[in-house]
Amino acid sequence: MREKVEAALTEIRPSLQADGGDVELVDVTDGTVTLKLTGACSGCPMATQTLHQGIERVLKEQIPEIKEVIAV
């Protein structure tokens, strides 16, 4: 599943990088994906919305086995 998540993040990453941010995959365990938002995304007031309404939505669409996405 980790490879699928990495592939999906590769598609999402350009949108984040366009705004000066990025995302790193930390772990995938039992349907939970742990990510680290970096660059302009870390500390951004919209980071939670980006995580859940953007990244999590896309990952769940592409990989139905994903239950949740969390940021560290």
Notable characteristics:
72 residues; GMP Synthetase, Chain A, domain 3; 46% helix
Secondary-structure blueprint of this entry?
Layout: H1 2-18, E1 21-29, E2 32-39, H2 47-62, E3 68-71
Parallel strand pairs: 2-3
Antiparallel strand pairs: 1-2
Task: Walk me through what this model shows.
The protein is an alpha+beta fold and 72 residues long. It has one domain (2-71): 2-Layer Sandwich (GMP Synthetase, Chain A, domain 3). Helices cover 46% and strands 29% of the residues. The chain has two helices and three strands, in the order H-E-E-H-E. It has helices at residues 2-18, 47-62, and strands at 21-29, 32-39, 68-71. Strands 1-2-3 form a three-stranded mixed beta sheet. The relative contact order is 0.23.
- Secondary-structure element order, N to C: HEEHE
Give me the secondary-structure category.
alpha+beta
- Broad shape: globular
Give the C-alpha Rg. 11 Å
Widest β-sheet, arrangement of strands: 1-2-3
Largest sheet: 3 strands, mixed
* Mean of pLDDT: 93
Number of domains: 1
In whole angstroms, the N-to-C terminal distance is 20 Å
Helix % is: 40-55%
Based on the coordinates given, report the CATH architecture: 2-Layer Sandwich
Summarize the structure.
The chain has helices at residues 2-18, 47-62, and strands at 21-29, 32-39, 68-71. It is an alpha+beta fold and 72 residues long.
